[in-house]
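Milestone 3.1: sequence recovery, worked example.
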């Protein structure tokens, strides 16, 4: 009888220990597998990329104003017409220091721009009506052309390769304007009915529309000032042309910066096999 009692106690102890081990195993989380080597939010990637271009742009303009103003603002009108601001092409392409820094930054930031174009393609595909998918493909094409033409016009400056620079600039303007207009309309009117806009997407669309209109108005005024300066050589008109040209570029940058709201939850990931993906 005593031996049977002892066996029962031992069995109960064994069950108790087994239960404790099982409970411990369940409650202790396993060490997660390392699935990627590198991860960065597209939010920060967009900010750093566009800030690098903005800082470079401001540096080139200020450096030219401080040290090369008279030469940079001389036109066919001669020195009888005083100007106070250089054009962007002159500020970033006519002088060795500015040209080197600007070209380096533009080339360096382009791969990231192409990555964001690919992410945006998937973003639009998920929220835009299937019947308008051709517009999504068109946006991807325009965005790619915009980046490529920016690289070309930065490498081939107006002072050395005017013809190539001019054609690249026209291509850049056409692609960027169409990109801004189509994406704004598509996000406003082309969304799938069942998809609801988040607060960040609502804010992004509002700024997209504002900076699209601002960009188009600034471009129209810049074009008018350019033609008027060439025709009449009036004092100050060339300065206004340069100023509104700056606003065209800055509004384009700000438009693209709305990616921080559209793609707020997206991360760029490099996995163990060095594959570049996003999630």
């Amino acid at each position: 009888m005593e031996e049977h009692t002892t066996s029962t106690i031992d069995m109960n102890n064994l069950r108790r220990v087994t239960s404790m081990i099982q409970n411990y195993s369940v409650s202790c989380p396993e060490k997660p597998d390392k699935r990627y080597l590198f991860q960065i939010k597209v939010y920060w990637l967009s900010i750093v990329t566009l800030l690098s271009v903005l800082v470079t742009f401001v540096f080139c303009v200020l450096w030219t104003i401080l040290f090369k103003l008279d030469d940079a603002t001389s036109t066919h009108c001669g020195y009888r017409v005083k100007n106070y601001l250089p054009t962007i092409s002159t500020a970033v392409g006519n002088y060795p220091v500015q040209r080197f820094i600007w070209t380096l930054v533009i080339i360096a930031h382009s791969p990231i721009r192409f990555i964001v174009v690919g992410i945006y393609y998937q973003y639009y595909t998920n929220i835009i009506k299937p019947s308008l998918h051709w517009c999504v493909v068109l946006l991807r094409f325009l965005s790619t052309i915009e980046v490529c033409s920016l690289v070309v016009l930065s490498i081939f400056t107006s002072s050395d390769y005017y013809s190539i620079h001019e054609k690249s600039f026209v291509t850049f303007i056409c692609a960027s304007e169409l990109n801004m207009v189509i994406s704004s309309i598509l996000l406003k009117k082309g969304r799938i009915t069942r998809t609801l806009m988040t607060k960040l997407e609502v804010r992004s669309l509002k700024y997209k529309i504002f900076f699209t209109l601002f960009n188009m108005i600034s471009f129209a005024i810049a074009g008018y000032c350019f033609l008027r300066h060439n025709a009449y050589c009036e004092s100050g008109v060339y300065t206004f042309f340069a100023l509104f040209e700056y606003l065209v570029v800055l509004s384009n940058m700000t438009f693209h910066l709305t990616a921080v709201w559209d793609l707020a939850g997206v991360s760029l990931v490099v996995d163990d096999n060095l594959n570049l993906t996003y999630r």
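The beta strands are 36-41, 267-271, 276-278. The longest helix spans residues 199-232.
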